[in-house]
Amino acid sequence: MTDTRERPRADLRRAPERYLSTPAAGIETRHAFSFSGHYDPRNTHFGALLACNEETLAPGAGYEQHRHRDTELLTWVLSGALAHRDDDGHAGVVRPGMLQHLSAGRGVTHTERNVGGAAEPVRFVQFWLQPDEFGAPPGYGLRRVEPAPGGLTVLAAGKDRPAGPDALRLRRSDAALHLVTAGPWQPLPELPPAPYRYAHLTAGSVGYRTVPGPQGGGRSLEPGDSVRITGPAFADPVAGPQGAELLLLEMHGTLLLG
Known about the structure:
Helix content: under 10%
Number of helices: 0
Number of domains: 1
Distance between the termini: 20 Å
CATH topology: Jelly Rolls
Shape: globular
Mean pLDDT: 95
Number of strands: 19
CATH class: Mainly Beta
Radius of gyration: 18 Å
Low-confidence stretches: 1-5
């Protein structure tokens, strides 16, 4: 079988193509991968990424206590405020411009709710990443993000990836999550190379070519769209008239089995 890392590809997935679930009153979640009652054997993960969910919680709504194990959960709020509390003693409120990292380790139980007294829904994107260190104590981090000059900010990174002092540390050594920004009609900054890259547009729009050069077809991204990038695909990305903000997950390996 051909290794997908040897076949450059920019696999565009539109926001309406996501699986839709309504697991409880006031909750709407759209899944990029097989999740919960949605199963497609051809769409179970990408690289080390197990899930990317776009969530909307109405005022007063949220997820009651539920448990995770050996999963890195990264949460980016688009609007509103998300309240987190877990049985390891961590609590926080995540707002736009902040990143939350929950490292489930050997097991943690938590709740996620629209913050008390809110009059508007909270909308957020959440990535689930497989760690390469298993059975560790649970960990938690929350940071406010100041975008770096040049438009490429390391939000969280494993020990093998370069990162500044403010980056949250993942228990996946070969992965990093970046915030990518560009002004109207400006090219995106040079993106870090990796065998697997997952780009999720959170605001604005982006035009790009599927591969470098005239053979690459032109494509565009709207909010909620994503691209699964293998090798040197996703060429010459340029922001649209409102600029662009996207989350880029850089991965240098795939799932660890056994």
